[in-house]
Amino acid sequence: MRLDGDNATFELNYTLDTFTRFYVSALGCRYLEPELISFLGGYRDVMLIKADTNGATLRVVGAGKYNSGYYLFDSMPFGSKDKPLTESIARFTVVYPSGRLRTFYNVTATQNVFSQAAQPLANPAQAKSLS
Fold first, then answer.
1. Host H or E run for residue 70
2. What digits encode the pLDDT tens for the residues 90-120?
3. Cα–Cα distances in Å, from 58 out to 19, 32, 61, 116?
4. What are phi and psi of 124, to 5 degrees?
5. Residue-level pLDDT at 93
6. Strand, coil or helix: what is 40?
7. 54 secondary structure, DSSP code
8. What are the domain boundaries of the chain?
9. What sections of the chain are H helices per DSSP?
10. Cα(131)–Cα(127) distance, integer angstroms
């Protein structure tokens, strides 16, 4: 989970069975798209960025909430609301905007995390008048 403002990008790694691998290689990943998006079913605005036979990248717009200079990302179960994931994920890593990594093990949900919001750049007109 890579944090970027109030958005989050998820990079999923997976192994497909032989038939599915052949199908995806021949016909593309559109077959996998609904399943991949439902993996992050607790989020409202999930977009598939790319997918292949080894992994996928999904972007969640508005995954975090801004509060007092920080973006807060609440824990969200993996899977859909109707079918939550029951098997744990061996390793889940959060990549903060600064590049710092934080890894969690054997999880069934994203973790409660927060990141400091970027400081707004000074207005060039204001900066000029201050000099």
1. strand 70-73
2. 999 999 999 999 999 999 999 999 999 987 6
3. 24, 12, 10, 22
4. -55, -35
5. 97
6. coil
7. S
8. 2-130
9. 18-27, 33-39, 124-130
10. 7
Scan for tokens 């889940």, then name that residue.
92
Cα(14)–Cα(127) distance, rounded to whole angstroms?
A: 49
Residue numbers in the chain where pLDDT is lower than 70:
120-131
CA 54 to chain CA centroid, nearest Å: 17
The rounded distance, in Å, linking the Cα atoms of 108 and 124 is 46
pLDDT of residue 122: 57
Using alpha carbons, select from 1, 2, 5 the residue that is nearest to residue 71. 5
- For residues 20-57, one letter each, b for 16 or more C-beta atoms within 10 angstroms of the residue's C-beta and e for the rest, the string is eeebbeeeebeebeeebbebbbbbeebebeebeeeebb
Q: What sign does the CA torsion over 43, 47, 53, 55 have?
A: negative
What's the token pair of residue 52? 């292949």
